[in-house]
Fold this sequence. Notes:
Elements lengths: L1 H44 L4 H24 L6 H25 L6 H16 L2 H6 L1 H10 L2 H77 L3 E6 L4 E4 L1 H7 L3 H4 L4 H5 L5 H14 L10 E6 L5 E13 L2 E10 L1 H49 L6 H32 L6 E4 H18 L3 E8 L4 E4 L1 H17 L5 E10 L9 E9 L6 H4 L23 H11 L3 E6 L5 E11 L21 E5 L3 H13 L3 E5 L2 H10 L4 E4 L8 H11 L8 E5 L4 H10 L3 E4 L4 H11 L20 H4 L5 H11 L1 H24 L3 H18 L2 H15 L3 H16 L1 H11 L6
Parallel strand pairs: 7-9, 13-14, 13-15, 15-16, 16-17
Antiparallel strand pairs: 1-2, 1-5, 3-4, 4-5, 6-8, 8-12, 9-10, 10-12, 11-12
Helix pairs in contact: 1-7, 2-3, 2-6, 2-7, 3-4, 12-13, 12-18, 13-17, 14-15, 15-17, 19-20, 24-25, 25-26, 25-28, 25-29, 26-27, 27-28
Amino acid sequence: MQQSFDHAMKNTWIYRGWLLCLVLALAIGGFLAFSIWSKLDDIETARQDQRGWAYSQLEVEYLKLMSELNRVEYGENQDYEQLRTRFDVFYSRVKLANAMHLNAADDVSGLADLLSTLDRFIPVIDGSDTDLRDAMENLSDSLHRMSNVPRDVAIASIKIHAERSEAQRAQVSFYIKTLIYVLGLIAFFLISAIYFLSQRTKSLRLATQKATENEARLETMLRSAIDAVLLVDDHGRVVDLNGSAEKVFAKPRRELLGVSLPDILVSHRLREQFRFYLQNFRETGVTSIADKGVLEYEMVDGEGREFPVEIAASLVPNGDRNLFVAYIRDITERKEREAEILQMRDEALSAYREKSRFFAMMSHEMRTPLNGIIAALELLDSGDLNADQQKYLKAAMASGDILMGHINDVLAIEKAETEEGITLEPVDLAAMTATMIGAMQPFADSANVHLHLDQSGLDDRSVLTDPRALQQIMANLLSNAIKFSPGGDVTLSAHYEKVDAAANEPDMQLILEVSDTGTGIAKDDINRIFEDFVSLDSRYERRTGGTGLGLGIVKRQVKRLHGEITCESELGQGTVFHVSLPMHQTKTDYADDFTPQPAEMHQVPLHLLVVDDNVLNRDLLKAMLEKMGHSVVIGQNGQEAVALSEEEAFDAILMDISMPGINGIQATRMIRASGGINRKTPIIAATAHAMPEERAEFKAAGMEGFVEKPIRRAILSDVLAQYAAPRQDISSSEDTEPQTNDTASEADIILDTDQIGEICDILGLEKTRERVEKFLVQASEQIDDMAKAEDLADLRALAHALAGSSGMIGAAKLSRLCRNLQIACDALDDEGARHLVDALPDAHAELAPTFDDFFRTGPSNYT
């Protein structure tokens, strides 16, 4: 069938091409015939153009003028008016001929001189008879001298006429020859037309036969089709139908033929709509259903039942009568299934929203009282307690830590399920694994577990990954191994493996292994350990505690990082967890550390606004901050927070979220929009609301930081050090230092020896020295980039990066300068920011000798 169609299309194009050529040949022949006729008519009538006539008349008028001049001159005629008339006629002929000569650019000469001569006598001609009589002789002589010009012009007119006639004859000859060729071409087309039409007649006879056969096959197919097929005219009457239509509409064929589709078969709610569609088509020819794809409507069967259908209709032009072919499918069962699925989806979404609401509510309701308990316990830990009181205090704080851990485990599950993407950052895995071992060491010491770190497969390269997810994976695996290996050994090993990957795909894998010498896991239980709330301890003899969520969290985070986790274990032989994660290597050699920026050991006192509607939380937080050396102003609700922010400048604002009247989010937006003195002040959310979507809402409202209740003093110090700094006029020409306060000696501290000492304990002296050397080189490059930066936004980004890396390596003064530089950029203080950039090279120059002194004297002896 396809070949027949292609052949027919080919013949159609041949026919169209032939017809087009014939029409063109006839058109050309007609044009040539008309042209020959016109040319012959021109030759027959000996027509001349206006230029030839004007040239030929010039000599005639000249002779007439000279004749009249002679008559006057010899006294035959004393009427000067006749002479003036002849002069004017001759002048007009000369002027016309000269204009035509200039336009045609022919070889006629002398007309301009003749015209100039005549122009000289115009005043005489227009003057009195006496003047004309006196100038008669001069006029006669001048015209005699120019007598050759009219003769030459007359001869030129004859030449022009001859050339024109010759051109006409040549053109007629060309037209006749071309016409002969065209007539031959037309004859060829006519002969080919006779042959083509005979073949066309034969093809039409065969096509008619095939069409009859196809019609019979189509009728058979329609009768056996599962869907109902209706043939409807443009008034909506059913003209024909197939057998399935009788079943779909529960009516016999005789009752369906001739009925009105809009009046009988369509739902009463849609009848007016269908009538309008048909009327609009009859008036405009625009279809509303036909050729519009598959549409859904409701129809009615013979029993009065309304049911949903899918309709796909097509327009079939049939002379003066337009017909529509409608394919109708009953989708009642499918709609019922879809309704069930939608109901199940809605129920699932409702349950999910209820679960999220429950987590958020429980997080807030549990953290709020727990915040009061832990804060009060930390305030009691002042060193004045006796041994028994100190023992009870540690027991209470340990219990609070356990309860807080349970809450965090549950929230970690919710966070892993709600976070859609991952945040890729450059990470130094050697530093991260060493830091994790250091962080888990106190927990291991309490269980008498020996921690080991194998970094033989790592180097100083930086990779892109989600540092928080990776930290959570290692922390949970190490914590789990320590809990189940009391008195044993736990080893964290890490190495890279190169893999073959396509473009833009990770080109290597990070392999993490956490092995222990603990009790091991039975083979039947290995597949269960990654399920939530599963603990393999005896139900009544639990030794390890916990919620059973740790490995569930690990599995979720590994999946988010597109990795895999497996477990190998035997009872009594220990356990090994294998984690493989795809990694991209960064283009830079140095990466910011994954850990939050630490609190500086000598933090500058801050002036803070604390906003909380809970009296206990408010008082405890105030006491905690004052004990840290800060001054505190209290606000009881959001309205007070807004009012206080307009009256007094603060270094930072600690804002609760759930408060009556104006909540913390609303208060933050009002402070940011007020344009007051605290519009740029860092606002830190201090709340028990810890769900991921809630934190995103805090950030969108304008909050920079977040501290989770119950609030720990160390965490609070870290957050304040990261986001807050004392207010100062950094653009003042009188203040050349980044900080002006009573603790000037603290601003002069170049090296944080406690920080660099901790790094030495983790990495060792030699590796720490290598890291310091690399930091000094890259810090110098970053300072050069800051000096070249023209935009404050770019400058802030560079300052933020250097502040973090310098803080982690212990470069306290350089880190403080960079943080003050961030504040200047946020305040759009270009002059103050440039002043701080100028101070960075000196601070960097002080580092190398200070580090050398530290390494030479030894970390334990350096003061």
